[in-house]
Amino acid sequence: MPLVTLEGVSKSFGKNRVLNDINLTVEAGEVVCVIGPSGSGKSTLCRCVNRLETIDEGRITFDGRPLPAEGRELARMRAQVGMVFQSFNLFAHRTILDNITLGPRRVNGVRRAEAEEKARALLERVGIADKADRLPRQLSGGQQQRAAIARALAMEPKLMLFDEPTSALDPEMIQEVLDVMRSLAASGMTMIVVTHEMGFARSAADRVVFMADGRLLEVAPPKNFFAAPASERAADFLAKVLTH
Amino acid sequence: MAGRPEQRSEHRADYGWSHIDAVLDNLDIFREGFVQTLRLSLFAAVSALILGTGLAAMRVSPVPPLRWAGTAYVETVRNTPLTIVFFFVVFVLPQVDIVFSYFTFAVMALTIYHTALVCEAVRSGVNGVDAGQAEAARALGLTFSQTLRLVVLPQAFRNVVQPLGSVGSALIRNTSIAAAFGVQELTGISQRLTTANPGDVVAVLLAGIVCYLVLTLSLAWAVGLTERRLTRTPR
Fold this sequence. Notes:
heterodimer, B: mainly alpha, 10 helices, 74% helix
C-alpha cells in the first residue's frame, strides 16, 4: 500500500489553476524530488499533502486514509508528517531545544526529560548540539534549517515534506542542509522534496517529478530523467538550469 | 471619615501656600479615593485583559460564527460612549434583577468597554506574527488553541506591550466616570472637596491630577520595563 496517493488533484487561486489533475503515489521509504520552474505548483502540491492548502477537486490519502477535515483528526494526521519550510519557521520566542520538544510534549504527551534527551540526540545528529539553548535568530540560516529538520524528526514522522528547504540559504550553507537530508534519505525515511538542487535530486531521489504550469509532466528515476527527459518542457528546463 | 472636617481648618486671607491645607487636612480622603481608583483599574484591567484576549481568539478563529460574534461585540462596544455603557449596567441590569454594589457595577462597565480595546490591540499583535509560525505549529500537529496559546499569543503580546499600555492608561483615566455612578474614587472625592472648599478648587484639583499621574506614570514605567525584558536576548 502506498503511503501517499494523489488522485485527480486540482486547485485554483482565483482564476489561476495552480494544480491541474495531479496523480501521484509515493511508496513508504521512497524519496521523491519535485522539480520545475517557479510558479509551476510544486510548493502548493507539497503543502496539500498535509492540508496546509485545501484542494478543490480530487482526493489525497495518507497511510490508506483520505485526509481528514480541519480538527483534531487532522492534527493527529499532521503529527505523523514532518514539514520543513523554505523560511525555517522556527518558533522565534523559544530556544532551539524548546522548539524541538514542543511537539513531542504537547501533541504526543512525552515527558519533558525524555523529550529533551531525544532533542539533544537529534541536535547531535544534525550537528548543532551546542546551539540547544540559543534562540533561532542567533543561528545562521543553515543551522536554523537543520534545527527545523530536527524539530520535524522529533515527532518520529512517517513522511517528511521539504518545501524548498535550501532556497533561502546562502550558497555555503546549502551543503550542510543537503548533507543532513541525504543521510535522512539513506536511513529509509519517506521524503517528498520540492527543490531547485538538481545535484541532490540526481543523487538522493528514487524518482523525480517534473511539474510545469500546474501539471505533472514527468515521473521518472533521476538517471533516466536527467539523461533523457521525455517532454520538451523538461528538456528546455534542464538546459537552462544545468548549463550555468 | 465621620467627624472629619472636610473644610480646611482655619481661614487665612492670603493666596499663597495656605490653599494646600484643603488637601493636607483631607489626606485620608484622598487616600480612600486613590485606593478606589486603583482597585477599579486593577479589577477592570485584569478582567479586560483575559476577556479581551479570548475575544481576540474568537476574531482570528477558523469558525465563522465566532468571528462574527467577536466583530459585532467590538464594533458595538467600541463605538458606544463609555458613559452610556455605565448607564446600561447601573440602570438596566437592576431592572432584570441583577443587582451589585456601585463599585462592582463600575468594574463591569469598565471591563465591558475595555475588553473591546484589548481585543483590538491583541488582534493587531496576532496579525503581526509571521503566518509561518502558525503554519509550523499546525504542521507539528498542534490544535488551533494550542497554536494560539503556545506559539502565536506569546509573540503577539511582545508586539503589543505599548498598545496595551495605552489601553491601560485610558482605563485609569476612564475610571473617573464611575464618580457619576456612586463610586467615591479620585474624581468623586475631588468634586466633594471642591464643593466643601470653594476657595481651594485649584489646589484640590491639582492634588487629584497628581494622584492620577502617579498611577499612569507607574504604568508607563512598568510597560517600558516589560518591553525591555521581553526584547532582551538570553545567551
